[in-house]
Design goal:
58% of the residues lie in helices and 10% in strands. The protein is elongated, with a radius of gyration of 22 Å.
Length: 235
């Protein structure tokens, strides 16, 4: 049994201040925050990106530039995104513990440009996850809370739902994971990293107990079969 621990990033492992990011983009483009919302976010373009609707980071950025009417440099876009992020040390400690108990992977609702630059945007995650497990929803072709994104994560890691744990700060995303049989934890600022670690430990204990019970049942079945065979031989 290999356990899989799946983590959201923004407001779970990293503090994310959307207003700081928007202020930076406003300065870059010359548009007010309401104008940026109208030109990009309220058109559904960001959700499209998160669901894998752009083939590459370059396609995403070209579409963003066209929407805002400004030739935003990739470096500046990345800097604006990163300016809104700061790690939660206690949450990172919880991930470190999860990595001792099983495999860890990231699942964040973000598009291909964020995916391209995740090691730079969230450098504290690299030693915990490794580059290959820093993944966005866009890489699965569906976004949370769509059950398909969770099913595709399970498929990628060849993991049964009952052996997977997921943490997110949004109730709808937690419900999406639970709908496919994943054990999910709603991250709360009130309990933060310690609450996340407690949930991880509890899930691991329950999984071990379940595995032990299954092994006991198999052993009992094998013993019963041996006894039946022996009885037949005796006759």
């Amino acid at each position: 049994m290999a356990l899989l621990f799946i983590f959201d990033m923004d407001n779970v492992l990293y503090d994310y201040d959307w207003r700081t990011r928007m202020a930076a983009l406003s300065e870059l483009t010359g548009h007010s925050v309401p104008q940026l919302r109208e030109r990009w976010w309220r058109t559904g373009s960001e959700e499209k990106a998160e669901a894998g609707g752009f083939a590459s980071a370059e396609d995403y950025l070209d579409s963003f530039r066209a929407a805002v009417g400004v030739d935003v440099a990739e470096e500046d876009w990345v800097r604006a995104r990163g300016s809104a992020m700061a790690p939660f040390p206690e949450s990172l400690d919880a991930v470190s513990r999860a990595a001792e108990l099983g495999r860890v992977t990231l699942l964040t609702n973000n598009g291909p440009l964020t995916a391209k630059h995740l090691p730079r945007l969230a450098p504290a995650l690299v030693p915990l996850f490794g580059h290959e497990h820093l993944r966005t929803s866009s890489q699965y072709g569906a976004r949370k809370p769509d059950p398909r994104v969770f099913e595709r994560v399970l498929e990628r890691y060849d993991t049964a739902p009952e052996d997977a744990f997921f943490a997110d700060d949004l109730t709808e995303n937690v419900a999406g994971a639970e709908s496919v049989g994943i054990t999910a934890h709603l991250f709360s600022p009130a309990t933060g990293g310690p609450g996340l670690r407690d949930a991880i430990e509890r899930f691991a204990r329950d999984a071990a107990a379940r595995a032990g019970a299954a092994a006991g049942a198999r052993a009992a079945g094998a013993a019963e079969a041996t006894g039946i065979e022996g009885g037949h031989a005796g006759r």
